[in-house]
Amino acid sequence: MPPKPAENPNVKVGLEGVIAATSQICAIDGEKGELVYAGYNIHDLAENSTFEEVLFLLWHLRLPTKRELEKLVHDLEENSEIPHEIMSFLEKIAPRLSAMGMLRTFVSMLAHFDPEAGERSPAANENKALRIVAKIPTLIGAFDRFRKGDRLVVPPKGLNLATRFLHQLFGKEPLPEASKAMDVALVLHAEHSFNASTFAARVAAGTLTDIYSATTAAIATLKGPLHGGANEEVIKMLRQIGSVDRVRGFIEEELAEKRRIFGFGHRVYKTMDPRATHLMKMSEALGKAHGETKWFEMSIAIQKVMKELKGLDPNVDFYSASLYQTMGIPVDLFTSIFGMSRSSGWTAHILEQYRNNRLIRPLAEYTGPRGLKYVPIDQRK
Amino acid sequence: MPPKPAENPNVKVGLEGVIAATSQICAIDGEKGELVYAGYNIHDLAENSTFEEVLFLLWHLRLPTKRELEKLVHDLEENSEIPHEIMSFLEKIAPRLSAMGMLRTFVSMLAHFDPEAGERSPAANENKALRIVAKIPTLIGAFDRFRKGDRLVVPPKGLNLATRFLHQLFGKEPLPEASKAMDVALVLHAEHSFNASTFAARVAAGTLTDIYSATTAAIATLKGPLHGGANEEVIKMLRQIGSVDRVRGFIEEELAEKRRIFGFGHRVYKTMDPRATHLMKMSEALGKAHGETKWFEMSIAIQKVMKELKGLDPNVDFYSASLYQTMGIPVDLFTSIFGMSRSSGWTAHILEQYRNNRLIRPLAEYTGPRGLKYVPIDQRK
Predict the structure, then answer these.
(1) Alpha-carbon torsion (A81, A84, A85, A87), positive or negative
(2) pLDDT band at A7, cuts 50/70/90?
(3) Rounded to whole angstroms, how far apart are CA atoms B283 and B337?
C-alpha cells in the first residue's frame, strides 16, 4: 500500500524548497547557473585551481598559502596507504563487490584502524577527514586491480591525488592530459551544497556520530541511481548508440517511448550546469590526446538534439561520462570516482555541522488508520 | 569559523516542525504521550504482542494471521546465519571494533553476500529486509563472543528472535523472564517515526539506493551520542552513583554544575514517554527474577528526584539501561541492541520510501562571502 497523497499542504515532499540550515561552504544560483565554493566561482577554480587547493578551501573556507598547500599535498600522500589487514581482505572479496558497495564497506572499516579512533576533538576530526579523502583513491584503485586478479602498484612519490589515483588504477604513469582532466573533474564534483548524499552526511553528523560514520552514510546515499549513478547510465547510452549518425534516431525513439535520457536537466539549474562546460572542453582535449574522439562527438550530437527537442541542457554527469570513458576507466567505477571527489565536500559539511550542531529531525504526517483494537491472533481472519 | 546565525526566518534549523513526508507506519502525539504503530497503540502491543508480530505489522501495515506469523518466525531463524567468510573476518578483527562500528561495517558487508544482491524488485527488497533483521542479532552475539576470545554458540532451533539473541550472546538458555523482557524491549524500540536514523535511511532510500545501503546509513546515524547513545550514558551514571542513598546528592550536584542528566525529556514527548512505563515494569520484574533490584531501585529514585527538581519524565532510554544491566548485557552493546530492534522500523520506512519515492533534497542558505577573486598562489599572503 503506498501512502495516501498528502492532503496537508504543509507536507514538504522531498523537502523541495525547504532551507534546512545555513552554510558557508557552497552557493548555487540555479536561475543564473552559478556555482560558488566558499566565495569563489567554479569557473575560476576549474581554470586556475587544483583539487588539493579546493579541498583546503572547502575545509578552511579560504585558499591556502603555498606552504599550506604543499603540506596538504604531502599529508594526503602520506596518508594514502591502507592497513595490510584491510587490503588482504579486500583482495579476497573484491570479485564479489560493486564499487560503491566496496567504498561503503571499506570506508566504514577504516574507522576502526584510524590512529585517533575514539578521539572527537576538532583537530582529530580534521585529521580523520584528511585520512578519508587520502585513502578513497587507493581503495578504488586496489579494488579494480584485485578484482581483475592484478597486483597492487605503488605509485612513485610526489604525485598529486588525481595522478596518484590514475597511476594506482592503471599501474603506470598517466598522460599529462589525463592527469589534468582527472584533477579538473575532481574540482568540479567536489561540492554541491545539500545534494542527497551531503544532506545524509549532515543528518548523520547531527547526532554527533563520528566522521567515518557520516561519510559512510553519504556513500550509501550516493550509491542510489537517482543520485550518483547517472554518468554510468550516460555511458551505457553512448555505447548503445555506437556512432554519431545514429544519435538523432536513438534520442527520438527514446523520447517517443517516454524513456529518460540521463545526463540532462537538473533539479537546481534552470540553465546549463556550469560544470558541464569545463568537462566538455576536457573531454574534447583528452579525446584528441588519446586519438579517440568518438565519445566526445556523440556527446556533442546528443546535446544538440536534446536542446532542440526538449530544451534541456546537459548536467555534470553528461560530459564526465565521455571523459572517463576516453580515459579507459571501467564504467562501473564512475560513481565511486564521483564519491572520491565529493568526499571533500562531505567532510567539509560534516565538520561544519559539528561546529554548529543541531539534531536534524523532521516530522512525518501520519496517514494510516487510528484506534485499531488489538485482536488476539487466534481470532484473526 | 562557525556559520553566522540565520537571519532568514525561513531557515528551518534541525528541520524542527517541518513535515517531510506522509507515512502510514507510525503516529506520535507528543502532547498526549501517545505512540501508535500502524494504528495500534504501543500499550496494546507491549502487553499482547511480540517482536515478530510487530515486525510484520510495520512491514505490512496489518497484524499477521497465525500462519503468517509462524512463517515469519521460521524465516527469521532460517536467515539468521552469517556467511563463513564474514564470520572468520569478524573473529579476526572483533577486538578492534566498537559495537556500532561493527554493525555499520558488517551490515554493509552482508550486502555483497545477499543471494539477491543486485535485484531491485519489491519482493527481493522484502527478502533483504528480512535477512537484515534476522542477521543483526547474530552479528552482535558473535561480535561479543569473539572479542572475549569465546567461540560461537549455535542456539537450538525453534526460538524467537529475542531468545535466540540472548542464547547467542550468553551461550546458554536465558531465563524466561529475560527472554520476555528482551522481546518487550524490542517491541518498544522498534519504531519511532522520523527520528534521525530513520530519516537518514529515507534520505538514502530516496536516491533509490539499495536497502543494505539505506540501513547502513541508519546505523551510522544511530551511532551518534545524541541519538542512540543515551542509555549507555544512563548506565554510566547509575554505576557512578552506586547506591540508592547517593541518588539525591548526585543529581543535585550534576544539576548545579549544569551537566546533562541522560534519559530524561524528549524532543517529541511533553509527557512521560509511553515506552518508559513498560520498561520500568520489566526492569522491576527482571530485577526480582535475578535477585538484583539495585539498578531498578536507583532508577526509581532518580526518576522521583528529576520530577521534583526539573519536572522532567524519563524517556525510553532511561529504563532500558537498568533492564539491560540487570540482564548482564555489556553496556557498550546497548546501542547496537537498540539498532537490532529499530532495524524493523528502518526497513519498513525504506520499503515505504521505495513505494512512493521522491528524492529528498532540501536547500542550504549560503552565509559566506560572495564574488571573491581568485589570487594566484604566489601572490597570496
Answers:
(1) positive
(2) low
(3) 16
State ipTM. 0.95
Residue closest to A339 by CA, chosen among A181, A139, A153, A122: A139
Cβ neighbour number for residue B189 with a 10 Å cutoff: 24
Residue-wise pLDDT tens digits, B14-64? 999 999 999 999 999 989 999 999 999 999 999 999 999 999 999 999 999
- In degrees and rounded to multiples of 5, residue A83 shows phi and psi of -55, 145
CATH number of B26-224+333-355: 1.10.580.10
Nearest chain A residue to B67 by CA distance is A377
State the pTM of this model.
0.96
Task: Give bridge partners of residue A27 from the DSSP assignment.
Answer: A36
Contact criterion met (CB < 8 Å) for A112 and B97? yes
Other C-beta atoms closer than 10 Å to the C-beta of B74 total 13
A376 and chain B: CB distance < 8 Å anywhere? yes
> Do B132 and B348 contact (CB within 8 A), yes or no?
no
CA distance A161 to chain B (A): 19
SS3 content of chain B, % helix, strand, coil (to 5): 60, 5, 35
pLDDT in tens, A260-297: 899 998 878 888 899 999 999 999 999 999 898 999 99
Q: Which pLDDT score is estimated for A268?
A: 80
Q: What Å distances lie between residue A159 and A51, A91, B109, CA to CA?
A: 12, 24, 32
Per-residue pLDDT of chain B (381 residues), as tens digits, is 444 554 688 999 999 999 999 999 999 998 999 999 999 999 999 999 999 999 999 999 999 999 999 999 999 999 999 999 999 999 999 999 999 999 999 999 999 999 999 899 999 999 999 999 999 999 999 999 999 999 999 999 999 999 999 999 999 999 999 999 999 999 999 999 999 999 999 999 999 999 999 999 999 999 998 888 788 889 999 999 999 999 999 999 999 999 989 999 887 888 889 999 999 999 999 999 989 899 999 999 999 999 999 999 999 889 998 899 999 999 999 999 999 999 999 999 999 999 999 999 999 999 999 999 999 999 987
- Min Cα distance B119 → chain A (Å) is 13
d(CA A325, CA A351): 34
Distance CA B272, CA B30 (A): 9
Cα pseudo-dihedral B248, B254, B257, B261, rounded to 10: -130
Cell of B200: 537518514
When the candidates are 3.40.50.300, 3.40.50.2300, 1.10.230.10, 1.10.490.10, the CATH number that belongs to A230-327 is 1.10.230.10
Amino acid at A172: K
The residues spanned by each domain of chain A are: 26-224+333-355, 230-327
Measured CA to CA, the distance from residue A302 to residue A244 in angstroms comes to 9
Contact B342, B222 (CB under 8 A): yes
Provide the 3-class DSSP secondary structure of residue A40: strand
Min distance A293 CA to chain B CA atoms (Å)? 32
Q: Are A196 and A185 in contact (CB under 8 A)?
A: no
Instruction: Using alpha carbons only, give the angle B134, B135, B139 rounded to the nearest 5 degrees.
Output: 145
Report CA torsion sign: B128, B132, B133, B137: positive
Please give the backbone phi and psi of residue A193, each rounded to the nearest 5 degrees, phi first: 55, -145
CA angle B139, B142, B144 (to 5 degrees): 105
Between positions 71 and 110 of A, the ones with CB within 8 A of B are 85, 89, 92-93, 96-98, 100-101, 104-105, 108-109
Looking at the complex, does the CB of residue A260 fall below 8 Å from at least one CB of chain B?
no
- Which residues are registered as beta bridge partners of B41? B36
Are residues B361 and A194, on separate chains, in Cβ contact within 8 Å? yes
- Residue contact B368–A39, C-beta within 8 A: yes
